[in-house]
Amino acid sequence: MHGQYVNIRARIETLENLSGHADYGEILGWLRKFHTPPSKTFLVHSEPKSAESLREKIAQELHYDAAVAAYLQKIQL
């Protein structure tokens, strides 16, 4: 560090089953902060059943138009 060797006293740990992705509660919380709802919300990253469940929660709780994108689906914006 700054041209000096520094002894490091650390060990490496591995944590299993963690995700850097938000859960549905965090996603709903983020969407709730929008001043103007999106005209359509596309879900593009999840297993089909999980994505459909989140789509339903978005529709029921926020009344947003949401859709689960199909594999290789193209959408003109």
Describe the protein.
It is built from 2 helices and 2 strands, in the order αβαβ. Helix content is 31%, strand content 8%. α1 runs parallel beside α2. It has helices at residues 24-32, 48-62; strands spanning 41-43, 66-68. It has 77 residues and is of the alpha+beta class. The relative contact order is 0.16. α2 links the parallel β1 (41-43) and β2 (66-68). The model has no long low-confidence stretch (mean pLDDT 89). The protein has a domain at 24-68. It is elongated and about 55 Å long. It has a two-stranded parallel ribbon.
Question: How are the secondary structure elements laid out?
Answer:
Blueprint: H1 24-32, E1 41-43, H2 48-62, E2 66-68
Parallel strand pairs: 1-2
Strand proportion, as a percent range, falls in 5-15%
Please count the beta strands (DSSP E, at least 2 residues each). Answer: 2
Task: Calculate the terminal CA-CA distance, rounded to whole Å.
Answer: 49 Å
Shape: elongated
Overall mean pLDDT: 89
What is the share of helical residues? 25-40%
Given as residue ranges, the uncertain stretches (5+ residues, pLDDT < 50) are none
Topology pattern, helix = H, strand = E: HEHE
The SS-based structural class is alpha+beta
- Biggest sheet details: 2 strands, parallel
Radius of gyration: 20 Å
Number of helices: 2
Largest beta sheet: strand ordering: 1-2
